[in-house]
Amino acid sequence: MKNLKNIKIGRISLQVDSQNDKILEIGLHSDCGKDSGNQNVPKKFLSAAKALNDGYSGKEMLLSLDLLDLAIMKPFQRNILLTLYNNVPKGKVITYGKLADLAGHPGAARAVGTAMSSNPFPMILPCHRVVPSSGRIGRFGSGPEMKKKLLEAEGITFDQSGKINLWHFIKPTP
Questions:
Q1: How many whole angstroms separate alpha carbon 38 and alpha carbon 136?
Q2: What pLDDT sits at residue 3?
Q3: How much is the average pLDDT of 42-46?
């Protein structure tokens, strides 16, 4: 049985399973709001929330995947998100189709979109870096404004028509 604890610090909320000592979900919020009472919360989760808040504003964010309960995801989603994590660095973006190709699922752009939309660990597994082939921002669970803010915090720039400048796209090799 899971022992759930909700932690809210700044713009980040964490749902933690105290039983297995893992993060189950990360929430992003547009404003800081009121922090939850964080007494009796293990220091590693408070540190994770601080690091995520730093990442929200574009600072370097160093977090271990060991903090995440990756087992809550289906194998396809885990494969896609870990491929993203390992291949698309800060300041770069990739299209849904190219990410599908890179993960070994050519033609699965829509399925990649579905995997991104239900990502329980945004920012750590940075689904905001995945965009439509049109070069526009596309959708995001916390809204397109939040996605644009996260991309801009990473140094992503846009042309006059609102498209992401081409030099930010990675060109994966098969």
A1: 38
A2: 73
A3: 82
